[in-house]
Design brief:
The protein is of the alpha/beta class. The protein has eleven helices and 13 strands. It starts with a strand and ends with a helix. Bound molecules: oxa(dethia)-CoA.
């Protein structure tokens, strides 16, 4: 059975920064309250011309560069997002087209902030089964588009960004070792975005009622998160046949510094074993785990040979954890330049659209 290694990684974070000070000019809050209650100092907000697919493509190209893998070699693309570009088509298909992943299947996976763990596990399982060799997993968010900037309960929390992992089959032991995924839909009301779906299709009334904004019972989510995080870490480690002593890093979903602190206490592990960067990004939902991971690699914290636990939770309610033996890129003699495939991808997309137009024109004539 092949192993599923994480061989590439990349992130894309929009430049504009929104500080707590900026938010205190919009709602009744202040920097001290936000830092004390969440650990957040600032977050990044996408420009008007940046969308989930824009950030996802940038993160993906970087991840493919690290993996030294051409987009044309990808078998599968999974995008996970709590703020997808559309209900359909899948954001994954937009990414497939823009990076020129000519033979990849592509779909979106919705598990809110647990999405990156769910998606990475799905891609790893597809590789482990032997049915595919190369997969791209992306968490991408422009949550700022669904944030009610008059609601101090939510607008202080969220930020935009994207992160991507490349997963590849290898006979060398390592990579994704175990994962647990859980859900409890009885808590579905705790964190919602109700407007625009089949139950509340967009109307003037839904807009008036603010159903197109994130709504959250913060305390309920807080209680749930602190209950499940530690348990999930323990479960995933047990499944992997490992113990906390063997783990170099725990990389949690970055939702609230205090939640991470409570989880650390629950598993009796010092906080310095946790990678935490919420201060500068806020909660970027599905993108928070890969953004924290890539930063930790860039700082020289995460290294080849490390055992890492990823853990996340979110709307649904969903939660999960994953144990990974971190290896890094698979050595290869070839040198590919994934960014060069973008020009080819643009041309290919243009030609295919043109052919569809011409086909449509002639088929109308035939009728
Ligand atoms: O990916 C998952 C996404 N969601 C989460 O992880 C959210 C989890 N929950 C949380 O992070 C926290 O519950 C919040 C940060 C949302 C809220 O923090 P809290 O410590 O639970 O505050 P609270 O809701 O208990 O509010 C305490 C007080 C209240 O005032 P009173 O009723 O005690 O007078 C709030 O009205 O703080 C007030 N408050 C604020 N004050 C200043 C609530 N939000 C703010 C604010 N600035 N932004």
């Amino acid at each position: 059975m092949p192993f599923a290694h994480i061989t590439g990684w990349g992130i894309s974070v929009p430049e504009p920064v929104l500080t707590n000070e900026d938010i205190s000019k919009m709602v009744d809050t202040n920097d001290e309250w936000i830092r004390d209650h969440t650990g957040i100092r600032e977050r990044h907000i996408a420009r008007e011309d940046q969308f989930p697919s824009t950030l996802a493509v940038e993160a993906s190209i970087k991840a493919l560069q690290v993996a030294n893998l051409a987009p044309t070699e990808l078998d599968l693309i999974i995008v996970t997002s709590s703020s997808p570009e559309y209900i359909f088509p899948a954001t994954a298909c937009l990414v497939q087209d823009q990076i020129g992943a000519t033979k990849a299947g592509a779909f979106d996976l919705l598990a809110a902030c647990s999405g990156f763990i769910y998606s990475t596990n799905m891609a790893a399982q597809a590789i482990r089964s032997g049915s595919i060799k190369n997969a791209l997993v992306i968490g991408t968010e422009t949550l700022s588009r669904f944030t009610n900037w008059k609601d101090r309960n939510t607008c202080i929390l969220f930020g935009d960004g994207a992160g991507a992992f490349v997963l590849q089959a290898s006979d060398v032991p390592g990579g994704v070792i175990s994962a647990v995924m859980h859900s409890d839909g009885s808590g579905a009301d705790s964190l919602t975005l109700l407007g625009g779906g089949a139950r509340h299709p967009a109307t003037e009334a839904t807009v008036h009622e603010g159903k197109h904004f994130i709504q959250m019972d913060g305390k309920a989510v807080f209680r749930f998160a602190t209950r499940v995080m530690g348990q999930a870490i323990k479960e995933a480690l047990e499944l992997a046949g490992s113990s906390l002593n063997e783990v170099q890093w725990i990389i949690p979903h970055q939702a609230n510094y205090r939640i991470i602190e409570t989880a650390a206490k629950y598993i009796k592990t010092p906080l310095d074993k946790f990678i935490i960067n919420i201060e500068r990004y806020g909660n970027t939902s599905t993108a928070s785990i890969p953004i924290a991971t890539v930063e930790a690699i860039q700082k020289g914290q995460v290294k080849s040979g490390d055992k890492i636990v990823f853990v996340g939770f979110g709307a649904g309610l969903t939660w999960g954890a994953m144990v990974v033996d971190w290896t890094g890129p698979i050595p290869a003699k070839k040198h590919v330049h994934p960014e060069q495939y973008r020009a080819f991808a643009r041309l290919r997309s243009f030609v295919r659209r043109a052919i569809r137009l011409i086909e449509g024109f002639f088929s109308r004539k035939e009728l």
